[in-house]
Design a protein that fits this description.
Utp6, mainly alpha, two-stranded antiparallel ribbon, single chain, elongated, 2 strands, disordered N terminus
């Protein structure tokens, strides 16, 4: 019997005999592989090494989308977005998944961008620019770009403010 530690000290018990029984009874290697993959990804989420944990979150978000679709990916994102550490890529992956939908919801995109900005908004001017470009796009509200610009200038720190202002000016003048 193996015990894998999960987020918030929950335990999942994996009985090796049960896995062997599944293989013998069903001969369904795909289901066993899926189970082992899930356990592998969950174990990676708990890694004490932030780089490993973050990378596993990105992969763990991709897998349910590829195997179960958008709703499953959104559910997985919701369960993972509360547990640090994060990477910008984690949030951008969910934004990408939302954009791939036939009719992406701006409210969901806004939620994902806002969550990413809470984590990286003080230092990542490119994230602010991507959000502004999204607002300028077909699904957004261009009238809110001024408010986003103001928030970015107030939130960004150091040289990031200057870089952002330059990029925003280039965007406004059509050079970006």
């Amino acid at each position: 019997m193996f015990a894998l530690k999960l987020v918030q000290d929950q335990l999942i018990m994996v009985d090796i005999k049960a896995i062997r029984l599944m293989i013998n009874l069903n001969s369904n290697v795909v289901n066993v592989f899926k189970l082992l993959l899930i356990l592998y990804l969950q174990n990676g989420l708990l890694s004490p090494v932030p780089a490993v944990s973050s990378a596993m979150k990105e992969k763990y978000l991709e897998w349910p989308y590829k195997t179960g679709g958008y709703k499953r990916a959104r559910k997985t994102f919701t369960s993972l977005h509360e547990h640090r550490p994060f990477t910008k890529t984690f949030f951008m992956k969910m934004i990408e998944i939302e954009k791939e939908q036939e009719t992406p919801k701006m409210s969901n995109l806004r939620d994902y961008y806002e969550r990413a900005l809470r984590e990286f908004g003080s230092s990542d001017e490119d994230l602010w620019m991507e959000y502004i470009k999204e607002k300028l796009g077909s699904h957004g509200n261009p009238e809110n770009c001024g408010k986003l610009h103001w928030r970015a200038v107030k939130t960004l720190e150091g040289e990031s403010v200057e870089h952002f202002t330059t990029k925003y000016t280039l965007l406004q003048t059509g050079h970006m």
